[in-house]
């Protein structure tokens, strides 16, 4: 045959070649570079970013310190739309009383002691004339040790958030002279499965809402002066006979606790229209006992 033969040149696989090039970028043994940089180059850029981020961190720390110097630890800075009366307690583990799970109960007991310690410390430092102390809680709930899982009894503790200047029953208000109190009722909860009929978890609000009056502790203006907000205890005791007779699907109940004012001769008024929030407490029934 007299014609020239075609010569085929084999092209390397582009994926294999790409991996080789990437590996060479990670480390090039020919010039001993990593990511295209030698040792001296990496030392220079590392030193630059060390100084750069060190300056940023220092600038941030100085700004934070200046801003913290303008904040009064006892008086809130913002008192506008957030200044709403809300019933609650600053220990999340005090919102559930679980007579079934030991671990949950342990956290609940730790929360009680933490709240007591916080109130004891605040009361010892406050300088005002009307200061709420833990000893103002009357009855069994004054003693954290009274709450015992095996005895099917315990206490919740509730107060009102420290809304600066909050004084709903003061002179010049439409509720002047009214009692300010917290009361609770059984609630079905968000899922609608709370027990509101069996009365297994018998509860008592202490002090009695019929005579309870928190208004002397207001207006609240400073933790240093007024200490912490007054507390109301909710004493809970499980009726063993009713608990043993309950349906297995009946796991527990909720308590809905709200803040009210009441003038003589009128019905109690809650703070829903003012944006006030209630507290929802959870009670998990104990296991049934066999005799």
Order of helices and strands: HEEHEEHEEEHEHEEE
What overall form do the CA principal axes indicate? Answer: extended
- Stretches where pLDDT is under 50 for at least 5 consecutive residues are none
Find the structural class using helix and strand composition: alpha+beta
β-strand percent reads 15-25%
Structural Rg: 33 Å
Give the count of helical stretches.
5
Topology record:
Layout (H helix, E strand, L loop, with lengths): L13 H13 E2 L4 E2 L4 H30 L18 E2 L7 E3 L3 H24 L27 E8 L18 E9 L13 E6 L16 H4 L5 E7 L1 H6 L6 E11 L6 E2 L8 E6 L7
Parallel strand pairs: 4-11
Antiparallel strand pairs: 1-2, 3-5, 5-8, 6-9, 7-8, 9-10, 9-11
Features:
five-stranded mixed β-sheet; 291 residues; extended; alpha+beta; 5 helices; 26% helix
What does the model show?
With 291 residues, the chain is α+β, with helices and mostly antiparallel strands. It contains 5 helices and 11 strands, in the order H-E-E-H-E-E-H-E-E-E-H-E-H-E-E-E. The strands form 3 sheets. Strands 4, 6, 9, 10 and 11 form a 5-stranded mixed sheet that branches. Strands 3-5-8-7 form a 4-stranded antiparallel sheet. The chain has a two-stranded antiparallel sheet with strand order 1-2. A hairpin with a 4-residue loop joins strand 1 and strand 2. It is extended and about 100 Å long.
